[in-house]
Amino acid sequence: MERNNKKIIIVALLAAFFVIFLTILLLIFIINSSNKGSLTITSSPSDSVVFIDNKERGKTPLTIDELKNGKHTVIVKKEGLSDAKKEVDIKKGENKAVLTLSPSTVGGDVFKNKLLILNTKFEIRQSGTNSYIVALKAIYNRPSQYASYVEQLKQYKKESLEWLRANNIDPEKVQIEYVPKEAKDL
After folding, report:
1. I want to staple 60 with a disulfide (CB 3.0 to 4.6 A). Which of 5, 43, 45, 85 is the partner?
2. Residue 154: predicted pLDDT
3. Structural contact between residues 44 and 137, judged by C-beta atoms closer than 8 angstroms
């Protein structure tokens, strides 16, 4: 009889230890999950490489869930364009960061991307004798906003072409590179 009591006590102690262990694991999970937020990064052009705290995380558009709370350095890179860098402070819940890349110096001619105009809607740089880079600054935060993003691109493209014409540059007679590239066909 005494032997059965010992077995019952051992089984009860093991069950209690198991319940305590699972409770501790659950508390650790709850504490860790409450110390995280999410970060969404988009860029123009899309398909740019995203680095968070110097670690490659994917390509834009990109959402990273369960990013630890605190300050992080986000860098978005695209070949042929200058890097976009932003410090973000992640808090519990959802955070958004929209980084837009702008043209960098390309080509070896005398113009070296001479800035002609910079405003909130577009940027135009002369990259050669008869060539220009037009960077449109339309932004969207969610895939559901893509239609308004395209409309914004169309409007900004129209305004940039009007600016070129007003400054005696015929868009039909020069080479224009658009950023983002999808603006070319709008």
Report:
1. 43
2. 92
3. yes
* 89-118 pLDDT tens trace: 877 666 565 555 443 433 333 344 566 777
Is 93 found in the same domain as 42? Answer: yes
Considering 11-15, 132-136, 162-166, the range whose residues carry the highest mean pLDDT is: 162-166
Q: Are strands 131-136 and 175-179 parallel, antiparallel or unpaired?
A: parallel
What the block records as the tokens of 69 is 């709370």
Q: Which parts of 2-145 fold into alpha helices (H)? A: 2-34
Do residue 127 and residue 168 come from a single domain?
A: yes
Amino acid at 174: V
Q: Do 78 and 101 meet the contact criterion of CB atoms below 8 Å apart?
A: yes
Evaluate whether residue 17 is within a structural domain. yes
**Contact yes or no for 82/104 (Cβ under 8 A):** yes
Total count of residues recorded for the chain: 186
pTM exceeds 0.85, yes or no: no
